[in-house]
Amino acid sequence: MQDDALSTASSVNAARLLDSIQTLARFGAREDGGVDRPALSSIDIDARRHLIDRALALGCSVRTDACANLFFRREGLENLPPVMTGSHTDTQPTGGKLDGCYGVLAGLECLAALNDANIRTRRPLEVVAWTNEEGTRFQPGAMGSSAFTDPVLIERYMQARDSEGITLAAALAAHRDAFPSLATRPVQAQAHAFMELHIEQGPLLELADVPLGVVTGIQGVRWYAVHCKGAAAHAGTTPMHARHDAMTLALAVRAELSALAHELGRDDTRITFGRWTVLPNSINTIASDVTFTVDFRHPDASVLHAFDKQLDACVERHAVSREVLFAHPPVEFAPSIIRRVKDACNALSAPSMNITSGAFHDAMYLAKHCPSAMLFVPSRGGISHNPAESTGDDHLVLGTRALAHCLVHLCNEAP
Ligand code: GLV
Ligand code: MN
Ligand code: MN
Q: Per UniProt, what is one Pfam family of this protein (predicted)?
């Protein structure tokens, strides 16, 4: 069995893997070399058709579910719960070729390598393309993976609308029309394990000059919108003492939240005020309404809770209001799967280091469903969500070999 893992890893075909990344990137290619492929758009549906054809050619069965996740299944020798791997194929509007796509294409490459090495595994192996991880077209993100692990969510998601007013329900109907003969994957008992290979999207592996990151968990996240109310008035005539300026108020709240986050979270704090909406947004009118978003992340749940409490106190002190947009606790991956990932790195004589994911991923939800973990490869310059996102070919191939090694071991585990 050990030999099967190494033979599959060495059957990973570098040219085929790298070519598959370039080929998928043609769907939604941007002129600057990046990719813009919104979830369930017609471009995404074309990309999905390409992936389905590829999986069928590899001898897999293809199924879908209520959130249009795609499951490419290679049968095992026994009818045991499957091992799953995969990621997402939707992109940010200024996305690169690798975020998400690498994990799906590396999974397909592992299926091809198993075929080439003529290896049958005990358990089935399913490669999954999860729908709408980015949350760019429909919010929230990671819709497909969260609806898979918690099927009641789909009812709520159905009402989500994109910027043109198209509902998720309508987008899912378009997907069904595009692939009328796809079988539905039943909501099933727990999978045996889930393993997601992804680019790091940050600088740590590159700075340490280490090619593989064994991801032990994902930091927790809070998303808020803070609404600050003022009164519109003339910018030239209204004395400074007589103003109710929503922007002045918003900047004071922002400064307090930033100081709070740094004090509570120290070096591990990540705080971002990324989206601002200003009314009436006029050069010579004092702002009447300012809404800004807060993205606060930290690996320690107690810091996240303390931030929640102190944000509420700050909001009350300033008489502004806040809305919770999203919250997720820190995730710790399963020690049994982390061990498999480390074993794979060691078996390939590849240096590795433990790392906590700063970004969230589909594995954050799969970890609720079955023992899960992730593997990272370096991102050049730590750049992601950017057309310039890139990873060295050697690293892409090594990550896929380590994934193959890990999957074969997991697929051969006893019930
Ligand atoms: C998703 O990629 C996130 O971490 O924001
Ligand atoms: Mn991703
Ligand atoms: Mn992303």
A: M20_dimer
Whole-number pLDDT of residue 2:
56
Distance 121 CA to ligand 2 centre (A): 28
- Cβ atoms of 193 and 372 within 8 Å: the answer is yes
CA nearest to 393, candidates 137, 102, 134: 102
Full-model pTM: 0.94
Cα(145) to centroid(ligand 1), Å: 14
Which tokens in the block code for residue 188? 């099933």
Average pLDDT of the segment spanning 54-67: 98
**In the CATH scheme, what is the homologous superfamily, with its name and number, of domain 2-218+331-411?**
Zn peptidases (3.40.630.10)
Q: Is 359 in the pocket of ligand 1 (CB under 6 A)?
A: yes
Q: What is the mean pLDDT of residues 76-84?
A: 97
Query: Which of ligand 1's atoms lies nearest the C-alpha of 385?
Result: 2
- pLDDT score of 202: 97
CATH number of this structure's domain 221-328: 3.30.70.360
Cα(77) to centroid of ligand 3, in Å?
A: 35
> Directed axis angle between helix 42-57 and helix 168-178, to 10°?
40
For residue 285, which amino acid is it? Answer: T
Q: Is the CB of 360 under 6 A from ligand 1?
A: yes
Nearest residue to 320 via CA among 223, 222, 256, 250: 250
Statement: residue 106 has pLDDT above 70: yes
Measured by CA distance, the residue closest to atom 4 of ligand 1 is: 359
Give tens-digit pLDDT for 107-123: 999 999 999 999 999 99
Mean of the pLDDT values across residues 119-147? 96
pLDDT at 25 over 90: yes
Q: In testing the pocket of ligand 1, which one of 296, 361, 379 has its CB within 8 Å of the most ligand atoms? A: 361
Domain residue ranges in the chain: 2-218+331-411, 221-328
